[in-house]
Amino acid sequence: DTKDTWFIGGAKLLTEVWPLINEVHLTKTSDVYDCDTYIDLLYLEHNFIRTHEFLFDDNRYEVWIRR
What we know:
- This protein is an alpha+beta fold.
- The chain is built from two helices and three strands; from the N terminus they run αβαββ.
- It has helices at 11-17, 41-47, and strands at 23-29, 48-55, 59-66.
- A three-stranded antiparallel β-sheet has the order 1-3-2.
- The longest helix has 7 residues, at 11-17.
- The model has no long low-confidence stretch (mean pLDDT 91).
C-alpha cells in the first residue's frame, strides 16, 4: 500500500524535504509580492523534468517529475 504525502508551501520546508520529493506541482503567479524567501528553482530545474504546463490569465501551473 503506497501513501502519498503532500508538502504544501514554505521555501524552508521544501529545502528540508527536497530529497523526499518525487513530483512537484508548482503555481507561478504574475502578481508581485514583497517576499524575502523563495524556493530554489535552479534545484528544481536540475533535478526534475517539467511534464505539464497549463497557462492561465494570471498564473502558470506546472507539474515536475524527478529525473
